[in-house]
Design goal:
single chain, 335 residues, Immunoglobulin-like, 2 domains, seven-stranded mixed sheet, 2 helices, disordered N terminus, disordered C terminus
């Protein structure tokens, strides 16, 4: 009987498992998987995959490269191709110009052409290689001109970076602006603005040194990882966490930013860190009172008269003493 009971329980478990598997719906494909890829094409002699296109040439030259489209599904794909400008968003991320008429590519993205292959039909499980050209205008300034190749199909968009370097003198230069401390304590951050003043892309590395009026503070940790790519002529607003910021003090923050190529810039900002609430207001009041007292003592000491010769007692001068006659000097008068 125990053996029969055990067999019955095992059968029930198997039946329940089979019913569960039968009732479970099939897992749909991920919504962000288009079923095709776009990447730089590799030739027969190339053994490494290129993560982006790198093109270089003088003004007036025509550059060529190839884009590989791979359809991994069992149905034909119709993919639309275009060139786009690349730029930094306000927080430092990279974005590309839209395909909307009137707001599309106006820079290096408009120099990219696929000719008659703007729309490509890729059969199932097929790899299609599409050539394109990039024509550098004769009046193009030297330096980096960021762009991208964009492939679109069924609402899905894949972008491949194009690093274009136009021949001529290059300059790596940047500035740091608007250094400030926001928040306090573990939630404090150091905010600042970076501006690329040169004509090449930069990967800036910030280093921060902090000083406090009353207590001791530790410097914020090194800059962000991974660093941003700051494109030529772009301005970004960034923040760095400062978990060791004091709750109550006046801090002075010096931000030094360097980048490969010799770019370097420094800026300083000061800020009162005062917590909210009665304790914070009381501490702020004591700090203010102390500062006011120090200033008052400094002014009083500064106004104290210098010691001089003792004044003569009232009355006529003593016999034998002589009183010097007053002397008046007029510049330029004969004496």
């Amino acid at each position: 009987m125990p053996v029969l009971h055990t067999l019955r329980r095992a059968a029930v478990v198997l039946l329940l498992a089979a019913a569960t598997l039968h009732a479970a719906p099939a897992r749909p494909a991920a919504a962000d998987e288009p079923g095709w890829t776009a990447e730089p094409a590799t030739g027969a002699a190339q053994t490494t995959v290129r993560p982006y296109f790198y093109l270089a040439g003088d003004p007036g030259t025509v550059l060529e490269d190839r884009l590989a489209l791979v359809n991994t599904t069992g149905q034909e794909r119709t993919i639309t191709l275009r060139g786009a400008d690349a730029y930094n968003t306000a927080d430092g991320a990279l974005a590309v110009s839209p395909a909307t008429p009137g707001t599309g590519a106006a820079g290096a993205g408009s120099w990219i052409s696929f000719g008659a292959a703007t729309t490509v039909k890729v059969p199932p499980r097929t790899r299609a290689v599409v050539p394109f050209t990039l024509t550098v205008p004769p009046s193009s300034p030297p330096g980096d001109h960021p762009a991208a190749v964009i492939a679109t199909e069924g609402g899905h968009e894949v972008g491949v970076r194009v690093h274009l370097r136009v021949g001529g003198p290059t300059l790596a230069a940047l500035t740091v602006e608007d250094v400030a401390v926001r928040g306090r304590g573990a939630a404090a951050v150091i905010a600042y603005t970076l501006v690329n003043r040169g004509n090449v892309a930069l990967t800036p590395e910030p280093r921060i040194h902090a000083e406090a009026l009353i207590g001791e503070v530790s410097d914020p940790p090194p800059g962000r990882t991974p660093p941003i790519e700051l494109l030529p002529g772009r301005r970004v607003e960034l923040t760095e966490p400062w978990p060791g910021a004091p709750d109550l003090d006046r801090v002075r923050v010096t931000l030094t930013v360097t980048a490969p190529g010799g770019a370097r810039a420094t800026a300083t900002g000061a800020h009162w860190l005062v917590p909210w609430g009665p304790v914070g207001w009381a501490g702020g009041g004591l700090l203010g009172l102390g500062a006011t007292t120090a200033v008052a003592l400094y002014l009083v000491r500064g106004r104290r008269p210098e010691p001089g010769p003792a004044a003569a007692p009232d009355g006529p001068p003593a016999a034998g003493s002589t009183t010097p006659a007053p002397h008046h000097e007029l510049t330029g008068a004969a004496r």
